[in-house]
Amino acid sequence: MSRKVHITIQAGEISEQTVEVAENTTYEDLLDTLEINQETVLVLNEGNAVPLDGTVSSDTLTILRVVTGG
Q1: What residues have CB less than 8 Å from 66, skipping those under 6 apart?
Q2: Phi/psi of residue 63, nearest 5 degrees
Q3: Which residue of 14, 15, 29, 47 has the fewest CB atoms within a 10 Å radius of its CB?
Q4: What's 2-65's CATH class?
């Protein structure tokens, strides 16, 4: 079984997309599907960071690119 997840990606620009994920998809799997390096982002569910090895449990997520440097 699969379902659609609406994703807002905030990385300088804001983009939105909807992807279909399988029932046991992890956030790591989702980032791989989107070709996003998991070390450069935070995945937020209702404003709270989620563990990347956790199972996608929401229909709406935000992926926030983390800016580093100095």
Answers
A1: 40, 41, 42
A2: -110, 120
A3: 47
A4: alpha beta
Task: Output the six-digit token pair for 12.
Answer: 């300088």
The strand ranges marked E within the chain are: 2-11, 13-22, 41-45, 48-49, 60-65
Range list of H helices, 5-65: 27-33
pLDDT digits (tens, 9 = 90+) for 26-67: 999 999 999 999 999 999 999 999 999 999 999 999 999 987
Q: Which residue has the tokens 């079984």?
A: 1
Smallest CA-to-CA distance from 51 within 21, 31, 67 is with: 31
| Contact assessment for residue 27 and residue 50, using Cβ atoms and an 8 Å cutoff | yes
